[in-house]
Amino acid sequence: KEPLVPPVVYEWALQQHRARRYAEAEALYANLIDVGVFAAPPVHALRADCLLHVGRYADAVKEWKAADAGQHH
Q1: What is the DSSP secondary-structure string of 4-70?
Q2: Torsion angle, CA of 62/23/32/40, rounded to 10 degrees?
Q3: How confident is the prediction along the chain (73 residues), in pLDDT tens digits per residue?
Q4: What is the DSSP letter of 70?
Q5: Helices and strands, number each (H, E), in the chain
Q6: 59, 51 contact by CB (below 8 A)
Q7: Taking the CB of residue 57, how many other CB atoms lie within 10 A of it?
Q8: Rg (Cα) of the chain, in Å, rounded?
Q9: What are the two backbone dihedrals, phi and then psi, of residue 24, each rounded to the nearest 5 degrees?
Q10: CB atoms within 10 A of CB 5
Q11: Cβ of 9: how many Cβ atoms within 10 Å?
Q12: Measured between alpha carbons, how far is 27 from 3 in angstroms, rounded to an integer?
């Protein structure tokens, strides 16, 4: 009911991700990162996973680096 509210978008992205709708989830994660509200390391990591599944490997590596897994386990 609130498609523009970042927490709602995040939860919808998680649902898409769990349903293996990786392209849809990736687009939602990208939007959250772009608006800067949910640009936290976990969102970058989740987006990296989606990018791997859709075959965008270079972008996935870039997102994984943005997640900074060494500091944000």
Answers
A1: TSHHHHHHHHHHHHHTT-HHHHHHHHHHHHHHTTT--HHHHHHHHHHHHHTT-HHHHHHHHHHHTTT
A2: -40
A3: 666 788 899 999 999 999 999 999 999 999 999 887 777 888 999 999 999 999 999 999 999 999 887 665 6
A4: T
A5: 4, 0
A6: yes
A7: 11
A8: 11
A9: -65, -45
A10: 11
A11: 19
A12: 13
Our CA angle for 68, 28, 3, nearest 5°, is 135
C-beta separation of 19 from 27 below 8 A: no
- Kindly state the tokens that stand for 16: 């898409």
Q: Burial-class residue 71 by CB neighbours within 10 Å (0-12, 13-18, 19+).
A: exposed
- Residue burial 20-51, b: 16+ Cβ < 10 Å; e: rest: ebbebbbebbbbbbeeeebeeeebbbbbbbbb
User: Could you tell me the two tokens for 15?
Assistant: 């649902």
